[in-house]
């Protein structure tokens, strides 16, 4: 049985996310952007389980042929991982591209890992969870996150995080979040963080429960609508 890791510093990212500035050589970000613009892309989903959305696209990076810029960023990220959670290891890199259109709709809220993957990670790494990261290559890069929402969506906890160029947002794999629409073409980098020996399939995301509210009397999370109304009264 694999050795089990425990966290000695309390809950891992209790709010679910953390903005991080990566210390990289000055030419790295422009090199990333040039590489991003030269790549071929395929559509990703808008609605979970729905058809691919050609206004949101990705280009997977072959780990055997990573550019020098990607190698430099990988080294910088490992420094961050070691400080936050040494169990995390290098995962899958993808360049992401959003183009204007798509009726200005946001992506459907979701989690980046399926429940079976999350359970397996917790079994071997108590207190741990796989993670994801977005790295901004251009201004106005943004992501909607639901602060501290790991089991059910609560719109009162939603906020849009703007990511400055050269910064990244690191977030837990069970944090509910969604991509945002763009009025100009936007390029960014996505990185999955997992555990050594953990087998999983990237981009198989998990839908989340319907919008939930919190009962003002007992604090219980209840699906909004008639159910929440009955709970309160």
Key traits:
alpha+beta, 233 residues, disordered C terminus, 19% helix, Jelly Rolls, 4 helices, disordered N terminus, three-stranded antiparallel beta sheet, Prolyl 4-hydroxylase alpha subunit Fe(2+) 2OG dioxygenase domain-containing protein
Question: What is the compact description of this entry?
Answer:
By secondary structure, this protein is α+β, with helices and mostly antiparallel strands. Helix content is 19%, strand content 31%. The strands form four sheets. Strands 1, 2, 3, 4, 5, 7, 10 and 12 form an eight-stranded antiparallel sheet that branches. It has a three-stranded antiparallel sheet with strand order 9-8-11, with no helix packed on it. A two-stranded antiparallel ribbon has the order 6-13.
Structural notes for this entry:
With 233 residues, the protein is α+β, with helices and mostly antiparallel strands. It has one domain: q2cbj1_9rhob like domain (Jelly Rolls, Sandwich), CATH 2.60.120. 19% of the residues lie in helices and 31% in strands. It contains four helices and 15 strands. The strands form four sheets. Strands 1, 2, 3, 4, 5, 7, 10 and 12 form an eight-stranded antiparallel beta sheet that branches. The protein has a three-stranded antiparallel beta sheet with strand order 9-8-11, with no helix packed on it. The protein has a two-stranded antiparallel ribbon with strand order 6-13. A hairpin with a 6-residue loop joins strand 2 and strand 3. It is globular and about 40 Å long. The protein starts with 16 loop residues before the first strand and ends with a helix. The N terminus and C terminus are likely disordered.
